[in-house]
Design goal:
Keywords: Chloroplast, Initiation factor, Plastid, Protein biosynthesis. The chain is built from two helices and five strands, in the order αβββαββ. With about 80 residues, the protein is an alpha+beta fold. Strand 1 and strand 2 form a beta hairpin.
Length: about 80
């Protein structure tokens, strides 16, 4: 089971972006470096460590190659 999970994670694309809007239920609108807007939710580790994300934060977003309109916020840059 672990090998398949690792394979899935390799297919993800990491992109830098800027949080532009705070939506409900821990979702955010993020403008990526290439100008595309995506809707991203918080990863489990960010929720677990209670890291606050506010409008204007630089974040790293993981995107699936299958659906480039949705993503997961995995890191907040300082």
């Amino acid at each position: 089971r672990l090998k398949t999970e690792r394979k899935k994670k390799k297919k993800l694309v990491d992109v830098l972006g800027l949080v532009t809007n705070n939506l409900s239920n821990g979702k955010f609108r993020v403008k990526l470096e290439n100008g595309v807007q995506v809707i991203a939710h918080l990863s489990g580790k960010i929720r677990q460590n209670r890291i606050k994300i506010v409008v204007g934060d630089k974040v790293t977003v993981e995107l699936s190659p299958y659906d480039l309109t949705k993503g997961r916020i995995v890191y907040r840059h300082r």
